Amino acid sequence: MRKVYLDHAGTTPLHPEVYSLICEFMKDTFGNPSSIHSYGREAKKWVDEARQQVADLIGAEREEIIFTGGGTEADNLAIIGAAAARHKKGNHIITSSIEHPAVLNSCKYLAKNGFEVTYLPVDGYGLVDPEELRKAIRPETILVTIMHANNEIGTIEPIEELSSIAREYDILFHTDAVQTAGRIPVNVKDLGVDLLTLSSHKMYGPKGVGALYKRKGVRLEPVIHGGGQEKKMRSGTENTAGIVGFGKAAEIAARDLDSEYKRTIELREKLVQGIIERIPDVKYNGHPERRLPHNVHFSFSYVEGESMLLSLDMKGIAASSGSACSSSSLKGSHVLEAIGLPYELIHGSLRMTLGRMNDAADIDYVLEVLPEVVARLRSFSPLANKLTV
Amino acid sequence: MYNETVMDHFQNPRNVGEITDASGVGEIGNVVCGDILRVYIKVKDDRLDDVKYMTFGCGAAVASGSMMTTLAKGKTIEEAMQLTNKDVAQALGGLPPQKLHCSNLAADALHKAIEDWQQKNGK
Ligand code: FES
Q1: HSE (CB half, 13 Å, CA atoms) of B111?
Q2: pTM of this prediction?
Q3: Nearest atom (ligand 1) to Cα of B101
């Protein structure tokens, strides 16, 4: 059976070049980068190189990269660390209603500890309105955190505009760029951000490693305390192999950005058009233009998402859904709720995110399988079949 | 996540569809996740001569409807009223804990269909 992985916004496979380099590194480089001796210095050399590669991907300086245990940890450090460093200035934070749980729950944690949080609404496409940000700013506002692009519907936020408003008021601006880095150009200077989150495993690097870009001069309190690694911002002996792999992944992402972008968009358009042509009663969610190149997000009326995922999985196709039934909390996606999708269309949502391994034959296969899956589930859906008795 | 029996009933659900001249119909909306399951029954001599269902729900809901209709078919009204979600889940060889509520849908919708028949027939 053909296997088609369409969940690249969830995680990506390791790039073969990354895999080889990690193996080469791990074979005999085991030193602790903090050590003075040659073993330590050798390990430090590798880590420094990776730091440069990650910095280059986002137009930053090497010194501005803090390696963390992943994107979630980088979000925690940015938000909780900024709040702790600035709490004397104020206690108000602004975010959006469609952030990743790493951001939302960091904000919630602060809300339990004396901070106030404003959640900006989004429009039907998932866009934050810069004017809404301006209206929400108060004298006590110390931080704005808004994602670069949404992980579910792929909408790219107007970060440049949003960050310039924050700058007018001397408010720190953080963005979670986990979904965008390596997929669209990400440049910290163009974006005008003070803090930016990256994750390795979303760009064909290993899991368990991420980074926070911290603009020179921005002050944060660490969240993890210990031996003072990463310029005291993230204690704990470095995950050297992970960092080396992350660096390589960042280098490849930068190298292949343009070609992958074009190739992915072509595949995406083929998939989107194919679905619209073959399946009635669908809704294409997210923004038509301001959209991640690899994101396809539909709602299929009358069918439930988990049932779709199971059916697709039996045919070798891996995707995801915002349906309540497919989440362990049995709550529907907060993102789809925020863009105003009715509950039935949240239930019937399907996200397919493309990646390097996908080709046109994969799309043909999906276009063959998906219409059958939807038709079968609709054939016994009480919503598609009105009560006749 | 689901065992083989559940996956089998999901993939090849028994008794899906509607009964056009049903004696009773029951529809339940799930308060936990918002899903829907509808049951049609055909009663003959106080027995469930035929039972069919439709669902807008997860894999566990599809499988529960399939198992419930399989268990209910041929039972007397009295026996069918005793059928619980536990019976359905057990016959499926167990459901993940967070999916037990889905089997409620099936049992509840069956009981509602029977009540509908009882009402229509003054029982
Ligand atoms: S019916 Fe919704 S979780 Fe099972």
Answers
A1: 13
A2: 0.95
A3: 4
